Amino acid sequence: MQLKDKVALVTGGRGGIGRAICARFLKEGATVFAADLSEHGSLEDAATDDSRFVKLDVTSEADAKAAMAKVDAECGRLDVLVNAAGIEIEHTIEQTSLDDWNRIFAINVTGTFLTSKHALPLMRQAAASGTGASIINFGSYDGFIADPGLAAYCASKGAVHALTRAMACDHGPEGIRVNAVCPGYVDTPMLRSFFSGEGSGAGGGSLDTVLDAVKAVHPTRTCGTPEDIANLVNWLASDEARYASGQLWVLDGGLSAQVQQMRL
User: Fold this and answer.
1) Rounded mean pLDDT of the chain?
2) According to CATH, what is the number of the domain 7-184+226-254?
3) Rounded to whole angstroms, how far apart are CA atoms 128 and 111?
């Protein structure tokens, strides 16, 4: 088991990708805290697991402090922090209100900042044991290139990318590695919402038709799954990745490696 005896906290831990990460960490022997707004998250078929739920609004500094106090009281250390909480707003900048702009940055960027800031004392304790500690942020391939109608989302993920590099430089000497996972299209409720109805995604087409078209433009001819993302996160959390830090790990089925498809 790659994470035996390690303690991990996953924000957005009751969402699609966050839930898969928690499940993988548990399988690998970690003690896992699933941090989210509610214990069942947004998934109708939410099943319980052996993770320890922590109520956390990542935009609240008081919540971030309380979450880390709970981890400290129960375990006294934190080896792995995964900042998976995030939202998507489907507008151009002209359509985006200032409130929506501030909200997406509060969750995607400020949330990453707050949880990381208040996790650092516990992570230093874990790093002092000699095995190091790992922070894994969530960027996106949209932080490198852009999907139409996702201006604020793209901007927020670009900010997470820059923050990840800065954190890696600042805290690497303390034994704390920092990386970002940058998924492409992953079959989650968020992706299905993006492709539902009129708007920047499907443009009125049926969900199944659009998803098939999306798969067809990937070199791998498929979208990712939450488990695919959890596999990479698990490796970055493990001691096998001890030399990996300050990197933006794109996981997108080769989509961003190719020239855009010609439509004849």
Assistant:
1) 91
2) 3.40.50.720
3) 26
